[in-house]
Amino acid sequence: MDVHLVPILKNKLVDSRLLKDAIYFNGKLIRSYLLVFLLLLDSFLLVIILSGIRNEQRKVPPPALYFPQQCRDHFKEHNASMDSRRYYADFSDITEEQLPLAEIAPICQEMLLASNALSRSQNFWLHQKEYMNLLGQINAIQHTRERDIEEQKNHSTPIFGGIVQEVDSYQMKNAHLLAREKQLKKKIKSLPTMENYPLFPKFEQLVQSKQKKYARKKASYEMWYPWYQYLRMLFFIVPFSFIAWLAHRNNDMLPTNITILEVEIAANIRSLGMVINANILLLIIGVIAAYTINLMYVLLFQKTVEEFLPGGIMSLFKYLLIFVVIEVGVLVWKYRQKKKKAQADKAKKEAIKKAILESLCSNGKCRIKVDYKDHKFCPACGHTLKIVCPHCNAEVINGLPYCKYCGKKIL
Question: Does residue 265 lie within any of the structural domains?
Answer without folding.
Answer: yes
